[in-house]
Amino acid sequence: MTQVSSQQVLDAGLNDWRQLAQGLHARFLTGNFSAGLRFVEAVAEAAEAANHHPDVTLTYPYVDLQLISHDVSAVTKRDVDLARAISDIAREQQIEAKPEALAQLELALDTAQLAAAGRFWAALLTGDADAVKGDDVADPNGRVPLLWFQHTEAHETPRQRFHIDLWVPHDVAEQRIQAAVAAGGTVVDAEQAPSFVVLADGEGNRVCVCTVLDR
C-alpha cells in the first residue's frame, strides 16, 4: 500500500480523527463499559471485513483507537477507509468523538553514537536489545513510549540530552502552547512552527510540541 501524506489525511475530512506521530488516532466517548464493548465489537466486524485491524484501548468512559499500516510503518488509504467506517459506526451508535483530548508522547535522546546507546535502551525499555529499528526503539507491546535517537555532534556534558516530544492535534497545538506559557513556560524556538515549537519550563527543561503540519 502507498503511504498517504498528512495533507491527504486532512483533505479526507476525518473529523473524528487526528494524525499524530504514529498513525491516525481517535477517542470515542462511550460513557460506560457496556457501550464501549458494543462499539468495539462493531469495529471488530468492520476490521475483519476490511482485513485491517486497529489498536484498541477499551476503558470505562471511552475507547481509544489507533490506525497504522504496520507493513509499511505509515498511514495508507486502508487506514483512511477504516477510520471513515469506524466513524460511521460511532454515528450509528450515537457515540461522540473527542479529538481535542488526543496526544502522543515520544522521548528523544540526542546521541552521536547510536551504536553505543541503541541496544542499551532497547534492552532496558523492552527487554529485547534488538528492538532498534532505524533510529527508534519501539516496544511492540505498547508498554512504553517510543524512544527515538536524534543525531547530534559529540558534545561535553552537561547538556540536556533527553527531551520530550509531545504530539498533539494540529488544531490544539496553539491552545496547548499558550496554556503552558501561562503556567510559567517560555517559547524557546518557534521558527519551525507549525511543525514543532520548543518550550521550556521555569528551570530550562525543554519539550517540543509537535504536529503533522508542514512535514
Automatic annotation (TrEMBL):
EC annotation from Swiss-Prot or TrEMBL: 4.2.1.96
Transmembrane region(s): none
Domain Glyoxalase-like per the UniProt entry, residue ranges: 107-210
UniProt KW Lyase keyword: yes
Entry's Gene Ontology BP terms: tetrahydrobiopterin biosynthetic process
Claim: RNA-binding is one of the keywords in the record: no
InterPro entries per record: Glyas_Bleomycin-R_OHBP_Dase (IPR029068), Glyoxalase_6 (IPR041581), PCD_sf (IPR036428), Pterin_deHydtase (IPR001533)
Alphabetical UniProt keywords: Lyase
Catalytic activity: (4aS,6R)-4a-hydroxy-L-erythro-5,6,7,8-tetrahydrobiopterin = (6R)-L-erythro-6,7-dihydrobiopterin + H2O
GO molecular function: 4-alpha-hydroxytetrahydrobiopterin dehydratase activity
Pfam annotation, one family: Pterin_4a
Gene3D superfamilies linked to this entry: 2,3-Dihydroxybiphenyl 1,2-Dioxygenase, domain 1, Transcriptional coactivator/pterin dehydratase
Top EC class for this record: lyase
Membership in a protein family: Belongs to the pterin-4-alpha-carbinolamine dehydratase family.
Designated name of the protein: Putative pterin-4-alpha-carbinolamine dehydratase
Source taxonomy: Bacteria, Bacillati, Actinomycetota, Actinomycetes, Micrococcales
